[in-house]
Amino acid sequence: MRDILISRAAGVVEVTLNRPHCINALTEDMWHELHDILAQAEQDTAVRVLILSGAGGNFCSGSDLRSGQRSREHPMRRMRRANAAVSRLHALPMPTIAKVRGAAVGGGASLALACDFVLASPDAYFCQIFIDRGMSPDTGSSWILPRLIGLQQAKRLAYFGTRLSAAQAREAGLVTLVESDEQLDRRAAEWAADLAQRAPVALAMTKSLLNNSFESTFGEALAAESAAQSVNQLSDDGREAVAAFTEGRRPRFTGR
């Protein structure tokens, strides 16, 4: 069996972590493969939306600690491999959706939170389990959590390894939407299909603006918006949007 599965349909690619016997923990090779899959998706103009999920009723338990213990590599080298995958996921120009069932803990929670949206089933749970393993947060958690829920709440989760249910995570601001297990796949597919029909260039510009907003002054944000708007208006998609509006039809975006 492949450790990572890929399916494609109508501009949507779903990447499924597939080691259900160990809660989809990622080996060193899997982190490397995930990075390469994401890099290929970034270069593929046919990919409009990416969904990340886990097999067997769980999302991901983070890195496989057993495989790490067996490795003779320096920990920094192993961390670079995991960080490269999470960084690539966060920076993808297309919209990304984490579809979470069961456990999303440690680096698995980081992967989910690096996506634009987190859709969860009621049995999903999120945990910064690092402290319980004698470790500090990694794979971007120390950066993402304070931005999503504030510094004090981020410290609470990181210091105590607090486990949040899907409902608690939704209330805290870590989860976009909680859907029944039966409806989760359908909702993720509906959102992905909707996003896949929207202007890829405008979505990429919007994502970049919002992701960079915490590091920008107001003046810098205005300048970045002006530059992005110029890209939009000069793109083929921008011209197509105006033509479609004028002609009273649905636009057909190409991502150019």
Compute the gyration radius: what is it? 19 Å
Mean pLDDT: 93
Strand order of the largest sheet: 1-2-3-4-6-9
- How many strands, what sense, and barrel or not for the largest sheet? 6 strands, mixed
In short:
The chain has helices at 28-43, 65-70, 75-91, 107-113, 141-149, 151-160, 166-172, 181-196, 200-211, 218-234, 236-247; strands spanning 4-9, 12-17, 49-54, 96-100, 103-105, 117-120, 125-127, 163-165, 177-178. It is an alpha/beta fold and 256 residues long.
Descriptive account of the structure:
With 256 residues, the protein is of the alpha/beta class. It has 2 domains: 4-196, 2-enoyl-CoA Hydratase, Chain A, domain 1, CATH 3.90.226; 200-247, Lyase 2-enoyl-coa Hydratase, Chain  A, domain 2 (Orthogonal Bundle), CATH 1.10.12. It is 50% helix and 15% strand. The chain has 11 helices and 9 strands. The chain has a 6-stranded mixed β-sheet, with helices on both faces. A 3-stranded mixed β-sheet has the order 5-7-8. α1 runs parallel beside α3, α5 (141-149) crosses α6 and α10 crosses α11 (236-247). The radius of gyration is 19 Å and the shape is globular. The mean pLDDT is 93.
